[in-house]
Amino acid sequence: MSILQKIFRSLKNGHRTIRPFACISVNNSRGISSQVEMNLEKGQNLSIPTTFPPNQNQHEQEDHQYEENIKKSILENALQFVPKSGWSVESLSSGAKAAGYPTITHGLFPNGGGDLVHYFNVKCNEKLVDAMKTWPKTDTQEKVPAQFVENAIFQRLIMIDPYKTTWPKAMAIQTMPNNVPNCLATLLSLVDDICYHSGDRSVDFNWYVRRVGVAGIYKAAELFYLTDSSQDSSATKSFIASRIRDAQLVQSALNLSPVGAAPQTLTAAFTTAKNILGINTLK
């Protein structure tokens, strides 16, 4: 158990008494010794009750879960400070204080604001999945219904609204080398969930094509959304619909002439990858 964990246990539960694995009363020690000697003299087997230590793996799992619960509590409380302090260590410290822990516990997050952004992304993805499970499935011949994907992308984007003014900084944080793996993981998880719940059960190469396409649409819409001042973000919704129509045209071209369209497809895929990674700049 780490020092921080011991401090947390003390703060949350009060003083804990650490009991030894086996305890022998001093007053009874002579009686036990006498009984042992008598057994040895009679040639009887020596049998001494022993209490063994608990399973070490179980302790490690409990400590790990305890630490994860602390982290989650701090991160959840830190989100309320993001509009004022941004995706920063300051927000994490304020979150720790609000959760009832010392402000120094922000040290539990080696990536600082990057860990806070990652937590927010995971939380929003899970919220979207819960919502998509309740949406009615459309009766269509399309493997990925366009309307379903459009609604999913839009619903995910508006979850950013409470932090819209600070989100450009969050996007910049996600492009830092130590944060890129988490950023890509949450993005790929998002597009996979959208395609899956929309009805996509393909196992061919199109599985990858669709998900790369949805990822490109989402990242482009995310940038557009940050500059959208229309009522109810209607311009963003129109932008998403337009990008999905473009993607459908590309998919149709691929289905009609996959060999002839191969060079254009590779170029589009490369451009999309650069956009996802933030290599391209807006013009």
From TrEMBL:
Q: Which UniProt keywords apply?
A: Lipid-binding, Mitochondrion, Transit peptide, Ubiquinone biosynthesis
Domain COQ9 C-terminal: where?
Answer: 181-248
Instruction: Look up keyword Thylakoid and say if it applies.
Output: no
Q: Pfam families this protein is in?
A: COQ9, COQ9_N
Q: Could you tell me which residue ranges the Ubiquinone biosynthesis protein COQ9 HTH domain spans? A: 67-97
What GO CC terms are in its UniProt record? Answer: mitochondrial inner membrane
Compartment(s) where it occurs, according to its Swiss-Prot or TrEMBL record: Mitochondrion
Chief location bin:
mitochondrion
- Cited InterPro entries: COQ9_C, COQ9_HTH, Ubiq_biosynth_COQ9
- Keyword Ribosomal protein attached: no
What are the GO MF terms of this UniProt record? lipid binding
The superkingdom listed in its UniProt entry is: Eukaryota
An example Gene Ontology biological process? ubiquinone biosynthetic process
Q: Which family does it belong to?
A: Belongs to the COQ9 family.
Q: Which NCBIfam families does the entry link to?
A: diverge_rpsU
Function per UniProt: Membrane-associated protein that warps the membrane surface to access and bind aromatic isoprenes with high specificity, including ubiquinone (CoQ) isoprene intermediates and presents them directly to Coq7, therefore facilitating the Coq7-mediated hydroxylase step. Participates in the biosynthesis of coenzyme Q, also named ubiquinone, an essential lipid-soluble electron transporter for aerobic cellular respiration.
Protein name as catalogued: Ubiquinone biosynthesis protein
What species is given as this protein's source?
Mythimna separata (Oriental armyworm)
Task: Tell me the organism's taxonomic lineage.
Answer: Eukaryota, Metazoa, Ecdysozoa, Arthropoda, Hexapoda
